[in-house]
Every structure is written in structure tokens, then in C-alpha cells.
Amino acid sequence: MKYTANWNYPTSMRVGAGRIKEVAEICRAMGMQSPLLVTDPGIVSLPMLEKVIADARAAGLSCGVFSAIQSNPTGENIENGVEFFRSRQHDGIIALGGGSALDAGKAIALMAGQSRSLWDFEDVGDNWTRVDVTGMVPVIAVPTTAGTGSEVGRASVITDQEHHVKKIIFHPRMLPEEVILDPELTVGLPPQLTATTGMDALSHNLEPLCSPLYHPMAAGIAMEGVRLVQEYLPRAVADGADIEARMQMLVCSSMGATAFQKGLGGMHALAHPLGALYGAHHGTLNAILMPYVLQENREVIEPVICRLAGFMGLVETDFDGFMSWLLGLRKQIRIPDTLAGIGIGTEQVEVVGKMAVEDPSAATNPIRFSAAQYRQIVENAVNGVL
């Protein structure tokens, strides 16, 4: 089957192999004459980026490149990006790369014409109303990993280095105006990064499904998103050139970020502080934390997990059957069993517990865990206690 389509959900999306060639056309249609291409440092020297720049220039566009972004983008990265954008008089953003590049690109586009601090727009209360929308510039989002789904999100996760905390910067118009899902751009992704970003996509579908908020549409998307992970993530990890698997995982990633309108939960409430404190990869953290958080939520989420297990066609359609599948998947794609496996111990467990309670994702966990409960989950994840 040929997977090519144009969607308008939740934004305008061009889906299919080779569609990156349309980026210059999209820029011109949006009125961009001088887009800034925001990308990951690891992509700067790759042929894909050179081709995008060449196509843009062939179409008469002046295309700059900004790649000074950490794997967990910081406020300083955004400030530097905004200065770069303004000094060269760019008029729009092409965010191309993994979640860090997409988040950074959206944040730079938000801040391009603002006079306030980035942190004034943290997703707390009605802070988003402070944004001068006339100062925002359009974004074209092109993911090269299948994990965060930031291409269909209205927020960016940025690290406040001064306070060692990740903050969510939000505005409804941060949703990119155009998205390109081109599986050919993900073919070069190494197996381990394919695995961890794919598990991130799983967390973005699984946590909304378990969230107590009412949003049947998001729940339906989430359930199919989990099934796509089940079918295609092992294939994508085993054979990086499997275009069908790459395509479906890109779609699954976008589905997860659409589904989490329904909320996230304890996995993210812990992954955010652990990522800020240790600099660990977000998808890896969610992948490791997943079974430990699910186990702590079991008394509340068991019915929905059983429905999910049935939908997935598992032989054992109870909670234990689902957990068995999850643990088997992690083993198959070589996800570490414990936080200790990536060098995280219990030395900051008190701080992490307190930060998790305050994280926005904690508000939609099925059970309102205390700091002590979050601390225990971290200890379990460090020591491998399920």
C-alpha cells in the first residue's frame, strides 16, 4: 500500500515518502522569503539538510541555519536562536529534526517578536494571554524521529537551567501551520534511537488512554496509536530501511501528541525532572519508567488496560498480559530495565519526588501520587522492583 495523503488534523499535514521536496513550495505559499531552518547539531552536515537548503535557494528563498541546540533545549538556546533570527531578518521557521529541534523552532517562532521573558509564557493559568500574537512567525515542522510528536503540539518543553527544571511554554498558535511527515528522513536513525523515540510515542498514547479526563476522541486515537507501536516499532528497529514501518511510526508519534490533549501522567511527571537533573534522553526515561508507573496505577487503570489488551489481540487480555507484552517489547528492542542502567541512582530521589508532584503532567495521572509515592517509584525503577 502506498502511504501518501494530505490531512487537516490537527493541522495541515503532508504525509508520504519524498514529500520533503515540497518544503520550498510551502514556504512560498505561506509568504516566507527568508526562513530560518532550526535543526539538531547532528543533522547539520547530513545530505538531507543540504538538499532542503538547495531546494529553498533554487526557489529564490534566503535560507539560514541555526543548530546550537542541546538535546534538552534550554532557555539560553532559545535566546540565542531569537537573536540569530532577528539579526538576519528571517520571516519564518522550518523546524527540522527530532523533538529538541521542533520544540526549539516553535519557541523561537513564538519569541521572535516578544518583549517579555520566555518564562512569562510558561503553561500556568492564563500566562499564554500575555503573548503578542502579532510578533509570532509561522512554523513548518518536519520531524526526523518518530517520538515526541511536537510537530502537532501547541507547546515546547524548555529547560530552565537556573532552576534545573523543565518548563512547558504554551500558546494555541504555537501549533505549526504545516507539517511534513516523510519517512525517508528517518531511515538513518540508529536502532537504539529508533527504539527510545518509539517508546516515547508509546508513552504519549498510553498515558492519555489512562488519564481520567473525558475525551473519547483522544482515547480512540491513543488506542490505535498503541496498536501501531505493537505492529511497527519492532520492525523499524530491526530494519531501519523499512519505509512502511517508518511511516507508521511517524504517524503514531503525531497521534500520541494529538491524544495527550487528554493529559499525560506519572511517566512524564518523573521524566521531566529526571531529564532536567541528569540530562537523560526523554524517550529513554519514559521507556524505563513505563512499567513501574503502570504498576502503581494498576488499581485504577486495570479496566482500560484490559480493553486495550483485547484490542491489540493479545493472548492474555488482562493487566498481567499487557505487562508481559510491554516487558517483552522492551527486551526485544533493548531498552534498559532500570534507571541504574543509564547511570541514575537514588541520590536525588527526594528532589525528584517533590518536582514530580509539581509537574503539570501529575495533574492527570490516574492517581494523585504524593512526593513520597513518586520517590518510591523512582527507587523501584532504579532497583528493578516491579
Please tell me about this protein's structure.
The protein has two domains: about 5-185, Rossmann fold, CATH 3.40.50; about 190-385, Dehydroquinate synthase-like, alpha domain, CATH 1.20.1090. It is built from twelve helices and nine strands. It has helices at about 25-30, 45-60, 75-85, 100-110, 190-210, 215-240, 245-260, 265-280, 280-310, 320-330, 350-360, 370-385; strands at about 5-10, 10-15, 35-40, 65, 90-95, 140-145, 155-160, 165-170, 180. Helix 11 crosses helix 12 (about 370-385). The protein is globular and about 60 Å long.
Compose a concise summary of this entry.
This protein has 386 residues and is of the alpha/beta class.
User: N- to C-terminal separation?
Assistant: 41 Å
Q: Per CATH, what is the topology of the largest domain?
A: Dehydroquinate synthase-like, alpha domain
What is the chain-wise order of helices and strands? EEHEHEHEHEEEEHHHHHHHH
Helix content range of the residues, please? 40-55%
CATH class of the largest domain: Mainly Alpha
What structural class do you assign from the helix and strand content? alpha/beta
Query: Average pLDDT, to the nearest integer?
Result: 96
- Could you state the oligomeric state of the chains shown? single chain
Which residues form runs of ≥5 with pLDDT under 50?
none
Supply the number of structural domains: 2
CATH superfamily of the largest domain: Dehydroquinate synthase-like - alpha domain
Shape: globular
Strand order of the largest sheet: 1-2-9-6-5-3-4
By DSSP, the count of extended strands is 9
The CATH architecture name of the largest domain reads Up-down Bundle
* Range of strand content: 5-15%
**Largest sheet features:** 7 strands, mixed
- Number of helical stretches of at least 4 residues: 12
Radius of gyration: 20 Å
